[in-house]
Automatic annotation (TrEMBL), chains A, B:
This is Crp/Fnr family transcriptional regulator. Signal peptide: none annotated. GO terms for cellular component: cytosol. GO terms for molecular function: DNA binding; DNA-binding transcription factor activity. Residues 159-238 form the HTH crp-type domain.
DNA sequence: CGGTCCGTTGATTGTCTTCAAGTTGGGTGG
DNA sequence: CCACCCAACTTGAAGACAATCAACGGACCG
């Protein structure tokens, strides 16, 4: 469970000042009510890279809003094969599933040092009832996750290796780029280093890391990406988007509720 | 068999009498308020087999609760390849996506003659705000759809052909079985004919229909299934579940909100 | 009776996996 | 500082699995 290495922040960010709130679950909670939502929050917790937030098949008492970092959500088969569900980025809501009290349907492992805001699951029901802004936002977040999951499924089921890999890279790159450009008013690193090992990428796209390695080489030869240990960077977004059949409008959707 | 349980309603079913309401979006709306939700409903609509409820890339003014029948939800790539997202069954909520007014991210085509309850999209916002029971149910339905989509992704990304096919068949069979046993208090056809052509199944699992045909032959040889034109039946659930790595508790989850 | 949709089968090709060995680079402890 | 270690990455060769190409059968329908 939480027994992992967790460190309390010396000073916790207050919800009212939270820089990612505009993309998190409390987006629509009026400023003057934030104090009460904050009561639900048990704490900010940090996880070092490669630590588990929770494990597949085990129960976990918290849900999280990802505050900073990158977290791999994945499932496994009994034969050991892994399928990545999503590389979560700041603002993502983690750990919610239909049977809140049951064993987790997937695992979550930090790809970088990570900070999350934790909420006891027992409060989730109350939060959703008391704040219909949260319920609305939950519906929208879920719709976004659904859109992503379906594009991921399309990618995995109907594209060839190089297209799938291009898709996963360009989607994550696009997501981080949007985040960074909204955080820092000015400019941001034009080239982002995605915190993925080739094996993480292999899990995400449903291929072996060996074949991912060979395919990445093709992409490097075409100057579309660059790699170093545990990092992959997108160099040519336009070409990758074409290769990937990537349309940001299908995934990164503006909310309507 | 599916075709038999469908009853064409000469007069439209009233929400208060709706036999599938307990699994639909209005599950929790108090009896005495049903009249107002009914006002939102524009009509029951029937679609013949192989008609589109809506098409990918086009806009559509309604969302639907599937009342009777089976509907294939799918996406396509520009090269023509199709990936099935889900075979929807009665109680499923269709056509909702984050950008309600935008072009549909997926298409929906009837696999059998189908009856849906249609709701104008412009009322969706109001419905969710006015009835928090609907909002809650929406959140739960979405969690279920998410769980399914993720299992489907796991299946597509990490299993071999025979396992994927077994998974898709046993999952759909299990879903229909649950529906039928709750509809008819007494017994139901023990063997269900799933309304899938081999090509539909191929789309769902991300394989060619030729390879699906060969794999189905293996399953027939093992007496696990039987086929006729446009119908596939599960004969040995237990064996198929093992083959498929299928765990109903991961997908067909009891609600908690 | 011809047409069409769905299913079946064979032969061939190609993508991806598996097995098997390296190599590189960062980190650690002597 | 160097030696060592380990995880991540790289490369080659062989084989498995699924796609493609091609042809045919059978049921249903107008």
């Amino acid at each position: 469970m939480l027994a992992n290495i967790k460190v309390q922040q010396p000073t916790e960010t207050q919800c009212a000042e939270c820089p990612i709130r505009k993309m998190a679950l409390f987006k629509r909670v009026p400023e003057d009510q934030l104090e009460s939502t904050q009561d639900h929050r048990s704490s900010q917790i940090t996880f070092p890279s490669r630590a588990h937030l929770y494990r597949e098949g085990e129960t976990n008492d918290f849900v999280y809003t990802l505050f900073d970092g990158c977290v791999k959500l994945y499932k496994t088969l009994k034969n050991g094969k892994i399928q990545g569900m999503r590389s979560a980025s700041p603002g993502d809501f983690l750990g919610f599933q239909g049977d809140l009290d049951g064993a987790m349907h997937h695992g979550a492992i930090a790809l970088t040092d990570t900070i999350v805001c934790a909420f006891p699951k027992e409060d989730v029901h109350r939060m959703l009832c008391e704040h219909k802004e949260i319920a609305s936002e939950m519906i929208m977040k879920n719709a976004q996750m659904m859109a992503f999951c379906q594009e991921h499924l399309l990618s995995t089921g109907a594209k060839i290796a190089i297209e799938r890999i291009a898709f996963t890279l360009i989607e994550l790159n696009h997501r981080f780029k949007t985040l960074l450009s909204s955080k820092s008013v000015g400019q941001y690193e034009r080239i982002i280093e995605l915190p993925l090992t080739q094996e993480d990428l292999a899990d995400a796209v449903g291929l072996t890391s060996i074949h991912v390695n060979r395919t990445l080489k093709q992409l490097k030869d075409k100057q579309l990406i660059s790699c170093k240990k545990g990092r992959i960077s997108v160099l040519n977004e336009k070409e990758l988007m074409l290769l990937a059949h990537f349309n940001p409008d299908r995934i990164h959707v503006r909310n309507i509720l």
